[in-house]
């Protein structure tokens, strides 16, 4: 029997599992795996049911699999179109047999996102509800029943994304009474200024978190939950990565206490485990403890600074003065309108060789961009991800120089500009300098069809795993989709594609016939706004 035959017959379960894991985010392929045989089905089902609320579906009928008979009867009384068991003694045994499923689906749950759960419930109710009078009661009942089902079936969460969802309050008590449900969490994402009791239970029971994501909205005061939040940080024994995210910076109420969080890191149990720190949209004003904190983190490998503020001389001096730790500045994305170029020269002199991800936001003025691009050419030779949002003619030609210097080391490239002339320069000049392979290319431009065709011709030797294209043209635009079909689809030059046309107001993903056409060539079309089309680092950077 050949190896291939053994795989499909189920004789090599370890190898089968590796194959299935490879397709864990390709749901259509996973559904096909179920149909091969029992072994493939048995190995695939748990993956599909570890995070079902994230899988796009038409009717969300899977929710019914989690509901017991009493839940269904109550929902029926609320006006929900749902099948309920017939109550007569003669059929009791038959009903029990009919309700028994092949798998213990609630036990498979590993990833929960409170917002995704709410959206799934609301979608399911909107499809099946013929009486809106009890809409809120129905949502609350299902929300609470889901958590009860997971807990009763002894599920153990691996990833929990907690946000401010009003219906979650009714489910908190169930979790408080059953802390085993959350004590094995490895990835915790908190976007909240509520749930003091719940966060306290988290801090007392979850000691093995490896990835912690803390996001706060500045219009909310988090002082009421700061104590359990800091305790969550302090008590971790295996924390490897932590992200500090701040939203709505324009409100400038400075309610996010970064200073206290950093001090907690300094005196925490994770000083010998923490490897990565990510700062997103953080204001470093009056933060003068970076040096003393970082020097206490014994295995810190990298920090990532994404669109932060107050990156002044004081901040940079704190970073470059750390000499006894081998950590590296791996990511630097700038959006400040002004900063001291001399300080950034010192920063790039020390960390430029290690810098892998760099980009400029729309707010950074062109003169500063130009000076920084010149410094990048001089000091940064190992860039993997390069992002340029808004630029003048001098900046784009300097960027071309950077792309050529980086060469095959470049994996991810994102260029965004709404100026017709500059868009044309990009399309005419970029194709011939691209490396042979890119993991990711995002082009958001005002696209002239002839320039676009020239770009496709000149870049035909480049294979792009994930390609995102957005045409900003809104007046008199010619459809460029035929060029995409001719030069990309038929030549199979990408694995994943997203295309948005602002003039037509079209997302290619919404055209099901076109999607099927691309699939015939092995190309998966994604929504332009879907996180699935973004690479892992970009997903982290934009906080999906």
What does this molecule look like?
The protein is of the alpha/beta class and 544 residues long. Helix content is 40%, strand content 16%. It has a domain at 437-449 and 460-544. The protein is built from 22 helices and 16 strands. Strand 6 (276-280), helix 13 (290-294) and strand 7 form a beta-alpha-beta unit. It is globular. The two termini are 45 Å apart. Residues 94-98 and 250-255 have low confidence and may be disordered.
Q: Which keywords apply here?
A:
single chain, 544 residues, alpha/beta, 22 helices, 16 strands, 40% helix, 16% strand
Number of strands: 16
Tell me the number of helical segments per DSSP (H or I, 4 or more residues long): 22
Return Rg in Å. 26 Å
Please state roughly what percent of the residues sit in beta strands, choosing from under 5%, 5-15%, 15-25%, 25-35%, 35-45% or over 45%. Answer: 15-25%
Structural class: alpha/beta
Distance between the termini: 45 Å
Helix content bin: 40-55%
Please provide a brief summary of the model.
With 544 residues, the protein is an alpha/beta fold. It is built from 22 helices and 16 strands.
Question: Topology of this structure?
Answer:
Blueprint: H1 3-9, H2 13-22, H3 27-34, H4 38-48, H5 69-77, H6 92-99, E1 111-113, H7 114-128, H8 135-152, E2 159-163, H9 169-177, E3 187-191, H10 196-205, E4 211-217, H11 226-234, E5 241-247, H12 258-266, E6 276-280, H13 290-294, E7 302-306, H14 313-320, E8 328-334, H15 341-351, E9 357-360, H16 366-379, E10 385-389, H17 393-406, E11 412-416, H18 420-429, E12 437-445, H19 449-458, E13 463-471, H20 481-489, E14 494-501, E15 506-507, H21 512-519, E16 524-525, H22 536-541
Parallel strand pairs: 1-2, 2-3, 3-4, 4-5, 5-6, 6-7, 7-8, 8-9, 9-10, 10-11, 11-12, 12-13, 13-14, 14-16
Antiparallel strand pairs: 14-15
Helix pairs in contact: 2-4, 3-4, 7-8, 8-9, 10-11, 11-12, 14-15, 15-16, 16-17, 18-19, 19-20
């Amino acid at each position: 029997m050949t190896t291939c035959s053994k795989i499909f017959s189920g004789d090599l379960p370890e190898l089968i599992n590796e194959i299935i894991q490879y397709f864990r985010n390709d749901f259509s392929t996973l559904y096909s795996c179920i149909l091969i045989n029992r072994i493939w089905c048995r190995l695939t089902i748990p993956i599909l049911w570890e995070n079902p609320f994230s899988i796009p579906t038409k009717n969300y009928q899977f929710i019914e699999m989690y509901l017991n008979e009493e839940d269904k009867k109550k929902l029926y009384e609320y006006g929900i179109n749902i099948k309920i068991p017939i109550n007569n003694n003669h059929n009791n045994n038959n009903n029990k047999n009919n309700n028994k499923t092949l798998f213990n689906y609630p036990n498979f749950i590993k990833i929960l996102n409170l917002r995704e759960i709410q959206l799934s419930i609301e979608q399911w109710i909107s499809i099946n509800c013929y009486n809106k009078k009890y809409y809120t009661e129905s949502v609350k009942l299902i929300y609470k029943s889901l958590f009860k089902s997971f807990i009763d079936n002894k599920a153990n969460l691996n990833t929990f994304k907690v946000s401010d969802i009003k219906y979650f309050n009714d489910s908190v008590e169930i979790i408080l009474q059953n802390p085993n449900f959350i004590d094995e969490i490895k990835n915790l994402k908190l976007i909240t200024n509520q749930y003091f009791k719940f966060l306290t239970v988290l801090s007392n029971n979850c000691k093995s978190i490896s990835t912690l994501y803390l996001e706060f909205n500045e219009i909310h005061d988090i002082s009421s939950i700061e104590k359990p939040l800091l305790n969550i940080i302090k008590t971790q024994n295996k924390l490897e990565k932590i992200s500090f995210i701040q939203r709505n910076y324009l409100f400038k109420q400075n309610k996010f206490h970064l200073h206290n969080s950093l001090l907690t890191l300094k005196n925490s149990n994770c000083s010998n485990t923490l490897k990565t720190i990510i700062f997103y949209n953080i204001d470093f004003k009056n933060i003068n403890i970076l040096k003393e904190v970082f020097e206490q983190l014994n295995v810190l490998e990298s920090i990532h600074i994404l669109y932060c503020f107050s990156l002044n001389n004081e901040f940079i001096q704190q970073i470059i003065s750390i000499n006894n730790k081998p950590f590296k500045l791996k990511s630097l994305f700038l959006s400040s309108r002004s900063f001291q170029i001399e300080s950034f020269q010192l920063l790039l002199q020390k960390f430029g060789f290690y810098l892998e991800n760099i980009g400029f936001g729309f707010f950074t003025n062109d003169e500063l961009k130009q000076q920084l691009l010149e410094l990048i050419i001089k000091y940064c030779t190992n860039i993997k991800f390069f992002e340029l949002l808004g630029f003048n003619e001098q900046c784009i030609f300097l960027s071309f120089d950077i792309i050529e210097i980086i060469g095959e080391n470049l994996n991810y490239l994102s260029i965004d500009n709404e100026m017709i002339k500059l868009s044309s320069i990009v399309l005419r000049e970029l194709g011939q300098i691209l490396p042979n392979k890119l993991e990711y290319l995002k082009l958001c431009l005002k696209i002239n069809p002839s320039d676009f065709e020239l770009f496709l011709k000149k870049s035909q030797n480049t294979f792009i795993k994930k390609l995102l294209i957005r045409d900003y043209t809104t007046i008199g635009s010619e459809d460029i989709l035929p060029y995409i079909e001719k030069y990309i689809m038929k030549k199979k030059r990408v694995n994943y594609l997203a295309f948005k046309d602002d003039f037509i107001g079209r997302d290619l993903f919404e055209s099901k016939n076109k999607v099927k056409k691309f699939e015939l060539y092995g190309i998966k079309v994604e929504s332009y706004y879907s996180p699935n089309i973004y690479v892992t680092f970009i997903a982290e950077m934009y906080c999906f």
